[in-house]
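Researcher: Structure prediction, please.
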Amino acid sequence: MRIFGTFFLVLFFTSGVAYAHGECCLSRSLCEATTSNVITATNFGLSLQYEYSNMETIREGSHSRSPNSVLDDVASTWPKMPKEEKSFSVPTRMIMQKYTLLGTYSATKRLQFMATIPYVINDMDMKMVMRSPMGMDMKMKMEMDAVEGFGDMTLMGLYKVYTDNSDFPTKKLTAGMGLKLPTGKNDEGTDSGHLVHAMMQPGTGSWDPIFLVNYMHTLSPVVFQTNLMYHVTTEGDEGYEFGDKVSLDLVARYPIIGYLNPGLELNLFHAGQDKDHDGKYSRPDVSLIDNPDNTGITSVSITPSLQIRIPKTGGSIDLKFQQPLYQHARGVQQVVDWRAMAAIVWAF
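Model: Predicted structure follows.
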């Protein structure tokens, strides 16, 4: 056990360098926890999660757009010979990574507490169009510096409202309530003196309540789970308010052998429109992603998964790959093309 503990700590503190705002993935981290073995721990559980999100596609509504077509549309509204240089940028690729250390403590057979500490990393490539006062247009590619740091911590309480068997339940209803704390930095700046894009900031600066309901039902040999989460966002200390988020996950797992459990999930997600109350992050005339009008999305994704239990221990490894089936973006925005997730879980 000491060897595992040492390995876990080393893995966490050396798990790299990396990205920024985990706001879009917060619900994923908590949902992964509620459908993994970490909440089955008798005393306490530990989980280290890793998420890798690849974003390249730009959508307007449910239709895809190329970066060049967006730039050309914007440039067509400019004067042929502007008094001052004009410029506008769009993202061409964004890589979001997040490491989340999650711990649970069982106070009683029904009451459990959970805490998460994320470390996020964001890399972005962009393309810009410029028009000089002489009327000359030029397009160029740009690579932003990576933004990274600890994100917002989350504390949550989980209560087993109903279970048909306290030791080996086949039916279980769990309700949760939590709070996201503004522990991550949300005022990272650029060399030009502007704030980094709100979605790339490690934190949000807001205190957000989170509500969760999870239902598990075993129809041997298949285990079904339904997970509903509502994230109520509030205004951050820099005046930016992300849209409320609702997620619904339908999960099925089929244990083909004792220690190997493949599964399939259907994930529904909705995020409301952001608001920049103080205008500190908004530059809609020069950047596609610095415009709150281009925020808010509804998506449906499918996620095949594989859970590998480590024999004769409380450990397991969870692997998942998420592929969007449908996305409807508000305005014009870059969306997730695919997401890979991995977690090592240990229940004590």
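Model: The first helix runs from residue 2 to 13.
Researcher: Thanks, that helps.
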